[in-house]
Specification:
Strand content: 5-15%
Radius of gyration: 42 Å
Number of helices: 27
Structural class: alpha+beta
Distance between the termini: 151 Å
Length: 858
C-alpha cells in the first residue's frame, strides 16, 4: 500500500516538474518574441525617421524667383529639336495685387478652401486628421500647400511628396506673410477655361475686372477651383453644378461671420449674368497650330494615365516649364499648310448650303508611327476650331476606304481568297431585313459579272466586297483585323461595315494609321505626336516609344499594296496620283449621298489620309468631287520633291502565275481568245495559294449568227444551220449559273455567257434540244460535233415524235417568243399550221424521215 502511494507521489511530482519546465520555456519564448518585436519596431521607427529626414533633406527649396509665375513657360520642339512654340497661359492670366481683390473674394476662398488660414503655421493638423477620418471626402491641403503644389508642379500621390510639401509649407510661412501667400494663391489658382488667377477668371466669366465682382460672383469663382471641369460655368452641367456650390460657399461664409444673413440671401438670389462665351471665343486668336493642339491633348491624356488629374495635367503643360519633343516635321507641315491656306482648293461652289467646305489631312511615317504633319480645317486657323484631322469628336463615315481593312486584307491573309479569286459581280440579296431587295449595289447600280478580287477592289465594287464578307469571311475575323489596325468596331457585326458604313465613323488620323500595316510589312504602329516630355529640371516625365502589332503577313501587305497601286493607275484614284515616278498606292472613299470624300494612300516613305466635306452633312457637288484626291496629290507631291525614288520591297513568299481573270485559274489557250480581248495576266500569290488547275470557264462552241437571243447572243448552231451562218466562238460558262432571268439581264457580261438554246430558225426541234450541247473536254478533244447527236435525234424519232408532251412543248415554246422575234414566230407558225393536229404531225414526221435518209446516204 505504501509502495503504491510512493509511486503515486513520485508520478505527481514529476508531472509538476514538467509543467514548470513548459511554463518557463514558454515564458522565455514569449520574452524573446517581445524583444524581437520591439527591436523590429525600433528599427522600423528608425528607418521611418531616416526616410522622413531624407525626404526633408532632398526637398526643393523655394527661392524667390520660383515664387512668381515667370520662368515656367513650357516649350514645344519639332523632330529636329528646334523650338516650335512656347506654351503659356499669359494671354489668359493677369497678375493682380491683393489690395485690388475684393474682401468677399478673399474670404470666399478662405472659407471653402482653408478656414484656419490665418491660424495655422502652413499645415493644418486638424484638417489632415479630418481628411483621414472622412475617408478622403475632402482634402487636407492648406492654401499654403496649394501654392507649393502649383509652384513645384508636383502632383504625384506619394508619402515623399507629401512630407516634402509639409516641410516646405512650414518653411514658406516663416519667410512670407499670410497676405503674400494669399496673393500668390489667388494669382496661381486654376479656374477652368485656361484661366489662371482670379483676374483672368473675372474677365472670362463675367467680362469685368476682379475689383468689380459682386458677392455672388465671388462665391462662383471660389467654387470652381475644387473641380474646374465639373464646375465650369461655360458648360450646361457646369453652370448647374457651380450654382449649387455657390450656395454652399455663401452658407459657410455666413457661418464664419464673413457676411450677414441679409447679404447671404441677396447673393443667393442674385441673377448671374455670364459673359458671352461664343463672342469671347471668336475674339481669341491663338498661334497654336492644329498639330500642337493634338500634342497638348496627347500629353495631357498620358499625364492623366500617370496619375495626374485633368486640371493638374493642363496646368503642367501650360505653366510647368516642361519641354515637349514632338514628331512634327516642319518641311512636311509647311507643304500641307501651303495647300490648306490656298483658297483655290476650297472655292465655294455648293449651292445646297451656306457652310464653307472643309477638309483635313494627316501624314504619318509608317515605320515608327510618327505623325509628321496634320491640318484640321480649310483656311487659316482662328481661335480654337474643331480639329477635323484628329479630334475624337470627328466621326465621319469612311466609305470604301474600309474595304481593304475589313474585306480584302483579312480574306487574303486568311487564305480565303487570292487577288485572282473570281467573284460574280451580279445581283445579290444580302439584306437580312428584306431578302427581296438587291443589296448591296454598286455605286452606279451596274453589275460587271465575273471579276477578280483585284479588279473589284481597283474599281471599288460593293457587290464583290459584300459577297466576300458574307461568303468567305465572318464578322469576327474581319473586325478583329480592323481592331488590330487601331479601329475597334467589334460590336458592329453587320455587312454595311464592309462597305464603309459603320455606325460610328472615324477621323483622318485613325484612317491613316489603319493603313500603316500595308505600308509597313504588315505591322501596325500606334500613331504618336511626341517622343518625350521633360520637366523643368530635365527629368523624363513621359516617353513615347513605337508600339507594334502584327496584323498581316508581309506577303499579304505587299499584295494589297500592289492592288492599291492599280487603284492609282487605272482605278478610282487616278486623280490623286502625282508625277515624278514615286510608287504610290491608295484608295478612294465616298459615303452615302456624297456626304464625304476620302483619299488614303501611301508611298515607301509616308502614309496620308485626306477628308473633304462639310461639318453638317451636305451632298458634295460634281464640281468639287475630286478635291480630296487633288489635295492629297498636291501635298504629297510637295513632300516628295527632294526624296529619292524607292520601290515597295517585295518580301519572300510571293509566287507569280499566269492566270485567267475570268476563272482565277491557270490560263488556257481559250483565255486569249475571249471576245473582249485576252483575259490572261500575271498575278501574284502567297506561296501555297497559287492555282493548280487550268481555266475551265472559257469554252468554245459552234453558234449560228443568223439571229440572236433576247440578250444579244447568237444561238447554238443546230444540225440544220447553214455553214454560211455558223462559226466557232469562245464564251464563258459560270460555275454557278445565274438562274433568275432578271438578275442575268442585269449583268454586264451576259453577252459573253455561253448560250444555252439551239437556233430556232433552222432547227424545228431546237426547243427540245435545249442545253443538249457539249463543251470541249478538259483534254482539249472537241466533243460537240454534230454526228455525235445522231443517236439523240434517232431517239426523238423513234420514241417521242408523236407524243403529246413533244407537241405541247413545241407548241408552247413557239407561241411564247417575245416581240422582237415576231418575224421568226410568223415563219414558225406558217410551218406549224395545225400544230395540234396529229395527222399533220405524222406528215411532217414522214418528211423528216426522208430528209434523214438522204443525209445518211450523203
Amino acid at each position: 500500500m505504501s509502495s503504491k502511494n510512493t509511486k503515486y507521489r513520485k508520478g505527481k511530482n514529476q508531472k509538476k516538474k514538467v509543467g514548470k519546465f513548459v511554463f518557463r520555456f514558454s515564458l522565455s519564448v514569449f520574452r524573446m518574441i517581445i524583444i524581437i518585436c520591439l527591436t523590429i519596431s525600433f528599427a522600423l521607427a528608425g528607418l521611418a525617421g531616416g526616410a522622413v529626414f531624407a525626404y526633408i533633406k532632398t526637398a526643393e527649396k523655394l527661392t524667390p524667383d520660383k515664387l512668381t509665375l515667370e520662368g515656367f513657360t513650357s516649350y514645344v520642339y519639332d523632330c529636329n529639336g528646334e523650338m516650335v512654340i512656347p506654351l503659356q497661359g499669359s494671354k489668359n492670366r493677369d497678375m493682380v495685387d491683393l489690395k485690388d481683390i475684393p474682401e468677399n473674394l478673399k474670404n470666399a476662398f478662405i472659407a471653402i478652401e482653408d478656414r484656419r488660414f490665418y491660424e495655422h503655421p502652413g499645415i493644418d493638423l486638424r484638417r489632415i486628421a479630418s481628411a483621414i477620418t472622412s475617408g478622403g471626402a475632402h482634402g487636407g491641403s492648406t492654401i499654403t500647400q496649394q501654392v507649393i503644389k502649383n509652384i513645384t508642379r508636383r502632383y504625384e500621390r506619394s508619402v515623399e511628396r507629401k512630407v516634402q510639401e509639409w516641410w516646405i509649407a512650414l518653411h514658406l510661412e516663416r519667410n512670407l506673410s499670410k497676405d503674400q501667400i494669399l496673393e500668390l494663391y489667388l494669382n496661381i489658382v486654376f479656374l477652368a477655361q485656361n484661366c489662371y488667377g482670379v483676374q483672368s477668371a473675372a474677365k472670362t466669366y463675367f467680362d469685368k475686372d476682379v475689383s468689380e465682382l459682386t458677392l455672388a460672383e465671388c462665391a462662383i469663382l471660389a467654387g470652381i477651383t475644387q473641380n474646374p471641369a465639373y464646375y465650369d460655368p461655360f458648360t450646361t452641367n457646369g453652370r448647374e453644378n457651380i450654382k449649387k456650390r455657390q450656395e454652399v460657399i455663401l452658407g459657410v461664409m455666413k457661418e464664419l461671420g464673413y457676411i450677414t444673413e441679409e447679404e447671404y440671401q441677396q447673393a443667393k438670389n442674385e441673377k448671374l449674368q455670364y459673359a458671352d462665351y461664343n463672342r469671347r471665343s471668336a475674339d481669341v486668336v491663338t498661334n497654336q497650330s492644329y498639330f500642337v493642339d493634338q500634342v497638348v491633348i496627347d500629353v495631357m491624356n498620358d499625364l492623366m494615365d500617370a496619375g495626374y488629374t485633368r486640371d493638374e495635367a493642363y496646368d503642367t503643360i501650360y505653366n510647368g516649364g516642361i519641354k515637349i519633343y514632338t514628331t512634327l516635321d516642319p518641311k512636311i507641315q509647311q507643304a500641307m499648310d501651303e495647300v490648306f491656306l490656298n483658297e483655290e482648293y476650297f472655292t465655294k461652289v455648293n449651292t445646297k448650303t451656306s457652310m464653307p467646305p472643309q477638309a483635313a489631312m494627316v501624314i504619318i511615317d509608317p515605320t515608327n508611327g510618327h505623325v509628321k504633319a496634320l491640318y484640321g480645317g480649310a483656311g487659316e486657323k482662328i481661335g480654337s476650331p474643331l480639329n477635323r484631322a484628329s479630334s475624337s469628336q470627328v466621326k465621319r463615315q469612311p466609305g470604301s476606304t474600309f474595304k481593304p481593312l475589313v474585306v480584302y486584307g483579312p480574306a487574303i491573309n486568311e487564305r480565303k481568297i487570292t487577288a485572282a479569286t473570281v467573284i460574280d459581280d451580279a445581283p445579290v440579296y444580302l439584306n437580312p431585313n428584306n431578302r427581296n431587295e438587291r443589296y448591296p449595289r454598286n455605286y452606279d447600280w451596274s453589275y460587271s459579272g465575273l471579276t477578280t478580287a483585284r479588279y473589284a477592289l481597283t474599281k471599288s465594287f460593293n457587290v464583290v466586297a459584300g459577297r466576300i464578307w458574307d461568303e468567305y469571311l465572318t464578322p469576327d475575323i474581319a473586325l478583329d483585323y480592323l481592331k488590330k489596325s487601331g479601329i475597334d468596331r467589334t460590336d458592329e457585326r453587320y455587312l454595311s461595315v464592309a462597305l464603309g458604313g459603320p455606325r460610328e465613323g472615324i477621323n483622318p488620323l485613325q484612317l491613316a494609321a489603319a493603313y500603316i500595316p500595308f505600308a509597313n510589312k504588315g505591322l501596325y504602329c500606334k500613331p504618336i505626336t511626341y517622343t518625350k516630355v521633360l520637366d523643368m529640371n530635365g527629368n523624363v516625365l513621359l516617353e513615347n516609344k513605337p508600339q507594334y502589332t502584327i496584323v498581316y503577313d508581309e506577303a499579304t501587305a505587299y499584295i494589297i499594296t500592289d492592288i492599291l497601286k492599280d487603284v492609282m493607275t487605272s482605278g478610282t484614284g487616278t486623280g490623286a496620283r502625282f508625277s515624278g515616278g514615286m510608287p504610290q498606292a491608295g484608295k478612294t472613299g465616298t459615303t452615302s449621298n456624297n456626304y464625304d470624300k476620302w483619299f488614303v494612300g501611301y508611298t515607301p516613305y509616308y502614309v496620308a489620309a485626306t477628308w473633304y466635306g462639310y461639318d453638317q452633312n451636305t451632298s458634295i457637288q460634281s464640281a468639287e468631287q475630286g478635291r480630296a484626291n487633288l489635295i492629297w496629290r498636291d501635298v504629297m507631291a510637295k513632300v516628295h520633291e527632294d526624296l529619292e525614288i524607292k520601290q515597295f520591297e517585295e518580301p519572300p513568299g510571293i509566287v507569280k502565275k499566269t492566270i485567267c481573270t475570268k476563272s482565277g485559274k491557270l490560263a488556257s489557250e481559250l483565255c486569249s481568245q475571249d471576245p473582249r480581248g485576252s483575259t490572261i495576266r500575271t498575278e501574284m500569290f502567297i506561296a501555297g495559294t497559287e492555282p493548280k488547275d487550268e481555266c475551265d470557264t472559257h469554252v468554245k462552241v459552234k453558234v449560228c449568227e443568223a439571229h440572236t437571243d433576247e440578250y444579244g447572243r447568237p444561238y447554238l448552231a443546230s444540225l440544220y444551220c447553214p455553214p454560211s451562218s455558223t462559226s466557232e466562238k469562245v464564251f464563258v460558262k459560270r460555275r454557278v449559273p445565274i438562274t433568275n432571268p432578271n438578275d442575268f439581264a442585269a449583268v454586264g457580261d451576259k453577252i459573253y455567257e455561253c448560250p444555252t438554246e439551239y437556233c430556232p430558225e433552222h432547227d424545228l426541234y431546237a426547243p427540245y434540244n435545249k442545253n443538249n450541247f457539249q463543251y470541249d473536254d478538259e483534254d482539249g478533244n472537241e466533243n460537240n460535233n454534230w454526228d455525235s447527236n445522231e443517236g439523240y435525234y434517232e431517239y426523238l424519232e423513234q420514241e417521242d415524235r408523236n407524243s403529246s408532251y413533244f407537241r405541247d412543248n413545241y407548241s408552247n415554246t413557239n407561241n411564247s417568243k417575245d416581240n422582237n422575234r415576231d418575224d421568226r414566230n410568223n415563219r414558225d407558225n406558217t410551218r406549224d399550221d395545225g400544230n395540234n393536229s396529229s395527222g399533220h404531225m405524222d406528215n411532217r414526221n414522214s418528211g423528216r424521215d426522208d430528209e434523214k435518209k438522204d443525209r445518211k446516204r450523203r
